[in-house]
Specification:
The strands form nine sheets. Strands 4-3-2-35 form a four-stranded antiparallel sheet, with no helix packed on it. A four-stranded antiparallel sheet has the order 5-6-7-10, with no helix packed on it. Strands 11-12-13-14 form a four-stranded antiparallel sheet, with no helix packed on it. The radius of gyration is 21 Å and the shape is globular. The protein has a domain of 263 residues: Methylamine Dehydrogenase, Chain H, CATH 2.130.10.10. 43% of the residues are buried. The chain is mainly beta and 381 residues long.
Length: 381
């Protein structure tokens, strides 16, 4: 009896270890309120809030490499919060066990004025500061150890789109319509022009795609250098249709972008996928399933190579909120599951993507906005 009680107390202090043979843990979800400075962490196995934190202001949240941390970008407060998920790892040499712990705010940083675009690749993280055109660069391997970062200056304020590669940092500029290549020491090594109103970026292998008002600019690393080529918008494209957001998944040899009332596949050309309404959010889940939330309030799965709609589910009323201060439904994609935040209802829907069935409603209160799914790869759960 005493031994059992002592063991229970030790587990309570150290965290719960999920050993091999137990059911797979679905991870945790970080939820940023769209109106106030509030972050919540939901344990997706229990469906419960296990962390609730006051932060500098509303945020967009992003998953850091490794899946243990999330970055919350507070643009208007000039701050970045780094959240530890509580998904710990215990190293046993030949394997690692997942240890469930209490989440916390690991660091609150000033990365620069008006931090906005976040992009991670490999072990690198880049945050572009619109207020002065600097890029804050983090090494994800140091998260939990040292809260430091380096900085690259592009010379002027802008709305930038950074991509941190292994040996160089690419920085796209909306106002100047260029992509610049910098060394990690801050030296500009190359520049590619011809991408008006540049917005949106994604990485696939050695190629980075940037959305332009008139097409997509592909910047490819070849050896120690880079080359670029431009893909034009399709002939007869609707007025104002353009690529402004891009996603990629290693399973597929192409990028997917938004394009008017539809999506577009980007490979050697731009191939349009029509949709029943404008895309609001879209992306790939862990295994490469393409998922789209459209403005008519429906969630869809698509065949990535053709754009064929496979399944659909109504998850909300038509999405009409727009303009400054508006909080629109958002989405995070996990392992065969979509999480859709409904700001007006204070809840998050969990949808099973294989069947497109609503699994549960997570009531978080407030005005849930941005979401980030955290999951540790490679651990024995």
């Amino acid at each position: 009896m005493r031994k059992s009680l002592l063991l229970a107390l030790m587990l309570g202090m150290l965290g719960t270890q999920a050993t091999a043979g137990e059911e797979h843990h679905p991870g945790r979800l970080v939820v940023a309120d769209g109106k106030i400075g509030l972050l919540q962490v939901i344990d997706l196995e229990k469906g419960e809030v296990v962390g609730r934190f006051t932060v500098p202001g509303p945020a967009n949240v992003y998953t850091a490499p490794g899946g243990q941390y999330a970055f919350a970008i507070h643009r208007e407060q000039n701050r970045v919060s780094v959240v530890y998920s509580g998904l710990g790892l215990e190293d046993h040499g030949d394997h690692k066990d997942l240890v469930l712990q209490t989440p916390y705010i690991w660091a609150t940083l000033n990365s620069g004025p008006k931090p906005t675009h976040f992009k991670s690749h490999g072990d690198r993280i880049a945050i572009y500061n619109d207020g002065d055109g600097t890029v804050a660069l983090f090494d994800a391997r140091k998260l939990g150890l040292v809260a430091d970062f380096s900085e690259i200056s592009t010379g002027a304020p802008d709305h930038g789109a950074p991509v941190p590669l292994a040996q160089a940092v690419l920085v796209g500029s909306l106002n100047r319509g260029v992509v610049e290549v910098y060394t990690y020491g801050g030296r500009k090594a190359a520049q590619f022009e011809g991408c008006p109103r540049l917005h949106g970026q994604a990485v696939l292998g050695s190629t980075v795609a940037y959305g332009c008002a008139d097409g997509v600019l592909l910047v490819e690393q070849r050896g120690n250098g880079f080359v670029a080529r431009k893909l034009a918008n399709p002939i007869g494209a609707p007025q104002g249709a353009r690529v402004g957001t891009l996603v990629a998944h290693p399973k597929h040899p192409f990028f997917i972008g938004n394009f008017g009332q539809g999506l577009v596949r980007v490979d050697s050309t731009l191939s349009v996928y029509p949709l029943p309404a404008n895309p609001v959010r879209f992306g790939f889940d862990k295994d490469g399933r393409l998922v789209v939330l459209t403005a008519d309030g429906h969630l869809h799965t698509l065949e990535p190579a053709t754009g064929k709609v496979l399944r659909s589910l109504k998850v909300s009323e038509p999405i009409t909120a727009s303009g400054e201060g508006a909080v629109r439904p958002s989405m995070a994609l996990g392992d065969g599951v979509a999480y859709v935040a409904l700001p007006e209802k204070g809840e998050i829907l969990e949808v099973e993507l294989d069947t497109m069935a609503l699994k549960r409603r997570l009531n978080v209160g407030g005005t849930p906005g941005s979401l980030a799914w955290l999951w540790v790869e490679g651990a024995q759960h």
